[in-house]
Design a protein that fits this description.
The protein is of the alpha+beta class.
Length: 123
């Protein structure tokens, strides 16, 4: 079973330049949680799954209480935190920076990471 969150918009202070870290900017998150055993699919009971509102709260916490230079690190830190807090077998996190401060026109840049529980246990 996959549970997903798409288009979560968070304001964070991440980037290589001082301006990005001071002024901050809008970031978009897409998250996919893999839950091999999901009783809620049969019971319709929230206790048998991962409450995505709690995942959203954690993503917002990571994005707003930290300041990373690179989206790669932000995505990794977010994925690790999700694996540590929730009973999921795998997690995929994509962080997108719409309209980044570069000298050309492009719609977005981003980074994505996929971790499985065994990845976290090896660290």
């Amino acid at each position: 079973m996959d549970i997903f969150i798409e288009g979560l918009e968070v304001y964070g202070h991440h980037g290589v330049t001082d301006e990005e870290k001071v002024l901050g900017q809008r970031l978009l998150y897409d998250v996919r949680l893999t839950v091999e055993d999901c009783p809620a699919a049969f019971t319709d009971d929230l206790d048998g799954t991962v409450d995505y509102t709690e995942v959203v709260d954690l993503v917002i916490e990571i994005a707003t209480t930290n300041s990373f230079s690179l989206l790669e690190r932000l995505a990794q830190a977010t994925a690790e935190a999700i694996l540590r807090r929730f009973p999921v077998d795998g997690v995929w996190v994509q962080v997108t920076k719409p309209h980044p401060p570069v000298a050309c026109a492009l719609s977005s840049v981003g980074a994505a990471v996929e971790l499985i529980r065994a990845d976290l246990e090896a660290v």
